[in-house]
Each structure stands twice: as C-alpha cells, then as structure tokens.
Design goal:
Two copies of one chain form a homodimer. By secondary structure, chain A is an alpha/beta fold. The first copy, chain A, has twelve helices and twelve strands. Chain A folds into three domains: 8-51, 434 Repressor (Amino-terminal Domain) (Orthogonal Bundle); 63-164 and 301-331, Response regulator (Rossmann fold); 166-299 and 334-340, Rossmann fold. The N and C termini of chain A lie far apart (66 Å). At the A-B interface, helix 4, helix 5, strand 2, helix 6 and helix 11 of A face helix 4, helix 5, strand 2, helix 6 and helix 11 of B. Chain A binds a DNA duplex through helix 2 and helix 4. Chains A, B: Residues 6-60 form the HTH lacI-type domain.
Chain lengths: 343, 343
Amino acid sequence: MKFEAVTIKDIAKALGLSTSTISRALRDSHEISAETKQLVLECAEKLNYKPNPIALSLKEKRSRSIGVVVCEIANSFFSQVINGIESIAYDRGYNVIVSQSHESYDREVVDLQFLSSRSVDGLIISLATETTDLSHIKALHDRGMPIVLFDRITEEINTHKVIVDNYRGAYDATEHLIKNGFKRIAALAGSEFLSITSERLAGYNDALKAHGLEYSKEYVQHCYYGGMVFSEVEEAVNKLLTLKKRPDAIITTSDKLTTGCLRTLKRRGISIPDEIGMIGFSNYDIAELVDPPLTVIRQPAEEMGKAATELLLQLVESKRPVKEFEKRVLTPELQVRASAIKR
Amino acid sequence: MKFEAVTIKDIAKALGLSTSTISRALRDSHEISAETKQLVLECAEKLNYKPNPIALSLKEKRSRSIGVVVCEIANSFFSQVINGIESIAYDRGYNVIVSQSHESYDREVVDLQFLSSRSVDGLIISLATETTDLSHIKALHDRGMPIVLFDRITEEINTHKVIVDNYRGAYDATEHLIKNGFKRIAALAGSEFLSITSERLAGYNDALKAHGLEYSKEYVQHCYYGGMVFSEVEEAVNKLLTLKKRPDAIITTSDKLTTGCLRTLKRRGISIPDEIGMIGFSNYDIAELVDPPLTVIRQPAEEMGKAATELLLQLVESKRPVKEFEKRVLTPELQVRASAIKR
DNA sequence: GTGAAAGCGCTAACAG
DNA sequence: CTGTTAGCGCTTTCAC
C-alpha cells in the first residue's frame, strides 16, 4: 500500500548528475547553467517528480499546515469559519487540519497536543465550553507556537484575536425587541465562562437598562453545553415559559441555542412572535425560510476565518517574535425579519 | 517564531547514552535493561519529550493523516460528513486535512495533488461538479494511494465507495408525492455528470413510470453548479413555473438546490404545498422549522463519514494490496412533513 | 545490553 | 557551474 514517489535521487541517477545539482536546478538557483536547468526540469516533468514536503518540513522545521480547533464542525457558524480559513490557507499554500473539541476540555487538550506534536505551524482556536484552565494553551503559546483565538476567546492569552462586537450585536438585538414593543425579554445563553456569553449578556443587560426595563435574574437561563444537548435547551426554555411573569421575548446567544429554542417553542405550539418574540445569534443561511422568518444576529463567519488565518500566517511567517497583538472586532449584522416584530 | 522541541538526542546527552538506546527504550524494546528504560522514560518525561512525527513520517513513509476533498465545507451535508470523518480519524490517531474544490475541476486537481504530495496516507473524495476527466484520481489510485469515494462517486475507479441508495431515496420521495395527489412532478437536479444526479433522476423517472405518470423532458431542470450559484437555481425554478403545464410539485436532488428552490418559491409568494409541493434531499437539521415544514430525504451523513474513514483506514493499514472493494450503500431517510402533503 | 552507522528526501555549506 | 558532505529526528541493521 505504499506509494513510491520519484525523488531527487531518481532524477540525479537518470541524468548522471548529483542530487544537489538537481535540488538547485529545481529551485532555480543562479549557480546552475541554463542547459542543466532545462534538462532537469524536463526530466522532473517526465518522471512526474513531486518534492516531498515531509523531508522539507524536517529540514525547515515547519510543515506549512495549520491546526484548527472548534467545538463542532457541523455547525453553520463554524463550518463557515472553516471555509474562510481554508480559502486563505489554500491561497498561501497551507494545509488546514481540523479537529473538534465537542465542547470538552479534555478533548481540547488532546487535540492541541496532537496538533502541536504534528508540527503544525500555528493554531486557530475557539475555546471549548468546558475550558476554564488555559494552561495547556499558555504552555504552547509560551513555547512560541503562533496562536490566533476567535469567537470564544480569553484575555488570559496575549495573542491575536478575532471576534465580532458581541456586546453591540446583543445590545442592538435587544433594543430591536424593545422598540418593537417587547417588555419582558429573557435571554437564553451558553456557559457563563465563555467570553461570548458574558459579552452578549452584557449587551443585553445594558440595553434593558438603557430603556428602563426590569432585569430579572430568572430571565437569564444558561445552557452549559450551549445547545449541543437539545434537552438542556428544552428545559431552559420550559423554565422560562413557566415563570409567573412569563417573558414576551427571548434572545438567544448562539447558533444551536437559537434553533433549539425555536424548535422547543414550535413543538409546544407557541406562536412566534405573537406569544413570544425571538431573536438570536445564528449563521444559518435559511433563517429567512424558517417559520416565522427569523430575526438573527449574523456573524461574518467567513470573514472571521479569513482574518484569523491572515493574522496567524503573519505570525507564522514573521522573522522576529511578535509582541504587539491585535484584537480584530468585526461587525455582526442584524437581519430583521418577522420573528421579532409584534403584529 | 520557532518552537524548539526536545529530541531523542537531548535525552541521550543528558543520560550519557546513545540515541539508539533511547529510541529503543522509548519503544520498549526487549533488548534494553529495565533500569535503563526506567531512566530514559523518566528523563523523557522530565524534559517533556515528544517524538517528532515528521521525522517518523519521513522514515515510515506515512503521515498518519488523511486528506478530504469536498466541494464545500459550509454545507450541512458535507460538514456532517466531515464531522463523522474527524471522529473516527481522531479515535485512530489520524489527522484530517480538509480542502474544498468549490465544484471546480482545476481546484480539485490542485487539491489532490497538494494533499498527495503532502503525504497523506489516504484520501476521501466527493467529486466536484466540473469533474468529468478522472485521470488525476486514477493516477493516484494506480500509484497505490488509498482512496475512498463518497456521495459523488464514479464507476471508473475501482475502490471503496460510500453512498446512500440514491435511487431508492428519490423513488420513495417521488412516490410519496404521487400518493399525496401530485401529478405533474418536476425535478430540479444538479449537473448531469454527477453520479448522484443520474441515480436520483433514475429513481424519479421510475417512480413516475410505475405510477403511469407522464414524464416530460422539460420537467427536469439541471443546475450545473448544483445550487452553489443561487441565480442558477432561481432561473431553473422560474423556467418550471412558466411551463404551460406548470408542475404541481418539485423534487430537488441536493441540499443547496432544496434551499435555493424553497427560497425562490417563497420569494415569488408561491404557496407550498398548495400551489406547488416540495420534497428534497437535505441535511439541514432545521428542515422541520422551515415554513412549511420541509419533507426531506435525509442522508445519514455522519455515518457516511464514519464508514468512509473506516474503509479508508482499512486500506491504509492493510499489509497486502487490497483487490476487493466494497460499495457501502446506506439508507436515506424520508422525513415526511407538510411541504409534500396536499391539504 | 548498548553503540556506531546508515538512511528516509532534501538543502546548504564547503570544495573544487 | 557542479559535486561531496553533513545534518534535520528517528529507526534499524550490524557490530561489539
């Protein structure tokens, strides 16, 4: 089952030259005569020679590959981010190695360890829900591994970061609900430890405050697994529905929470937006086709992936250690549809 | 920006032993004394030694990574497949390198060439729409590269394949429409050259025939880019809508075609299923939340990814050349909802 | 039981 | 201009 590749040696033998000559000719070195180059190139072509990147990696101590860790690939937001990552990586000649944490800290540790030991040149990471201890990432970072964090980030690690303005997104969404006459606005959020959760909830809180609306602790439900487990969402939504002062709208702070919430409401036959208004973070491209058309805060996911990759490759390819890091904050888009407009 | 790793040499130096002894001790060779092993292991632990897989790859001519080529990552079906691939690969200690063809033949060629030259141990491929010439894949296959094809496959390459019973899925879906009183059933399909297109259309045709329904060529519209380009879908749907004998139902043969068709119909204010019934291949997990709830033929995407990976690793790890190949045909599921039921 | 040496494919310093 | 040699990290004969 091996796959015998043509090496520089084969060309050398075929041409009666030394391997170094071949190597130089292939790299178009100026110290090789035009004729020899010509000869070598032709022969390489004929034998279908392909340089062995493994050998190169061993020599150069870089693999031209980058590792990506997300909680889940089969998620509209993350798959779009990966799409963006892949497209830039492709343009720059890098491979993308994808792995999933499934929101598990242990799995994230293993993934990262695996990727770094596989000599990826850099890492693009969105933290797992369970992750509170960051020493595994810090250790890599301290040892010089280029890292870019996106979406679920942490201030504890000083490196490039790419996020959207989560505060703004949630603030605007909440305000949108308020302006549309909703008064008892609940929030369905992910784990409290996630950066996106606190940022988004802060926007939600401040919008309520700014409009003099009451903020009630029981109006904020956390789903530790952020929607990965549907039953958790269902339970949380049900809890909201049984409050004495039942909310008249819900804002959801992530993709899976949004669909989980919608699914629960629809299964219970609750009419949206009449009984309950809905707005949520979501990157589904069919939000407009949903019943009712879903008002969403959409993240420029592909852009985020592209930005993260550009920043990462900047680190990877930098000659000198980078000390100044950038937090790139993109703008989420509020796509207004029927689910959050009282009729 | 380098990342200085501890090597076997460092341990050797620290312990005053030779690198070969260290190597053997680490691999728990029987020709090393228990004490030495103990010593080496402790030292390795202390120095946080991690074997360099690149060096190993160079030696063993395998990289413990597999390459995946799909047309698009940000697609519910493919992201679910990749999820399945990643999970098995992870369990078996392999990395997954993902790349996208974006339905382009040229891009597929480059992707494959890139991946194989990066010494992936095997490839999991779903063909691009544009691909009709298979020589690039054949060449790899002939040179011994383990390959598993899924979803969009070809009979021209004799290797393991994983698909669903596309014929059955389309047949059942069409029959479902017929049994629900639809009589003029159109099909919106992808490129004619794709295996999934012909298989699914065959099921569609045969179901029509079996029920004595007229088959009209103009009822079958092909979108060459299979929904990647929305305008193409829109145009095709519009063409169907302007036929003198306007269809009363449409079956769509892929994820993007399904959403594209639905989007077009909704934008035009056409009521589903009253004016036109709809059924389509789709792996969106929110098909039930769409308006109207969408009847879909759902593929067991994650299973497919898992099966493909298991078959691939079987090839990769086989000692002797494999001559017998398997075509694994999974069963698609018809999820019946409102969009295909006359009311 | 342990070490020396060769080699995986390639590059680069050093000789001619 | 071209060849020789060493070396990237590791395994694996072959010696001792």
